[in-house]
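Reopening this ticket.

The earlier resolution said the output was attached, but the attachment link was broken on my side. Pasting everything inline this time so it's all in one place.
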Amino acid sequence: MRRNKHFGMIALITLVSLSALAVILEPHHPEAQEDFAPGNIAWMLTATALVLLMTPGLSFFYGGMVRAKNIISTLLQSFIALGVISVFWYVVGFSLAFGDSIGGIIGDPRSFPFFHNVGTAAHENIATGLPFILFAAFQLKFAIITPALITGSFAERVRFWSYVIFICLFSLVIYCPLAHMTWHPDGILMQMGVLDFAGGTVVHISAGLAALAGALFLGRRSAKGEEAEEPVHIPYVILGTGLLWFGWFGFNAGSALAADAEAVSALWNTHLASAAAMIAWIVYDAAFGKRPGALGACIGAVVGLVAITPAAGFVSGGPALFIGVAAAVVSNAAVRKMKRSAKLDDTLDVFACHGLGGITGMVLTAVFALEGGLVTTGSTALFFTHLLVLVVLVPLILLGSWLVYLITDKIAPMRVSKEQEEAGLDRSQHGELIRGFS
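Inline output:
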């Protein structure tokens, strides 16, 4: 109780101070002088809303896979990111991700603090066909869901206030630099020619690797065997998958930043890869003697969505289908292997599904890209660039994530006590319970 009061007071003072600064500084918001294509504006408003819907979808997807006493906690860990990261993005995050480049690695925090110089006018070299504030709002939704994805790895054993601190530090140390390097015109990965249409590297690989680091850092849950693995509410998982699949059309097709042929291609590739991965997952299960289940179908569909994300606007339909199938096989095999690990407890298999799914998608993007792909053009440059970037980024993200966990744990111990874990996080962290679940 005393700990909650302490962190609650700090959070309240911080929020009030930031609100006062936002008023005092009176940021300049340039107004549009040019005419934008109405169809592009309408599509990007829609895409922005679709991507926001993915985070509540993730809440249900994860919430249905944990034990009854941790449903609210798991739902809230995703949902609270909508609030926390939105404020973070407004204050400093957007500047770090898309501000004037410092060495191609990070944006200058003085570029857009409190959305200074972010208004309805277009930016001179970023998303030039859109109001800059619409682009910032669209990108915010990616920043929100990335740390939310990580929560599946340490579900059922993390303190709420520690988690809030963690997602801010992760966004600061990992997400914003990676977004800048990959998507800013002067970013080092952009300059190298790395292809990441909608966040295979920025979102899924980073979240998957941070999940792996978190599972190792926090250790295994106290529950064992079937008690730990039995999902409580499959209908929640199906609902969450449907919302994610629907929202992912905004995630991928919206990354074209226009209502054009590239957006259409990205939307179709997204759907095809997910459908193929869903089938591949349950077929793989059947090949190993497991009955086809709703849970496997849902996980497979999401893995397909993850894997096609970096490639969505760069490949055609056949490769999209292949990417979905390949990612489902890789992730399913990894899940089976990791479940046998005595040390690793990635509660909802975030690393196997998002980390390895994202890596599979990144590699195959370089194989099948219509421009520069290994198979499609015979050029090896893009393929070896992607491999080099993976070799460098994987240890950096793992190390950086471990550092974020370590700092967070020093500020506020992350793991709940054994008694709190046994009581369930719904009761011990939030004082709330869902009636009707045993």
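Reporter confirms the inline version is readable. The chain has one domain: 21-413. The mean pLDDT is 94.
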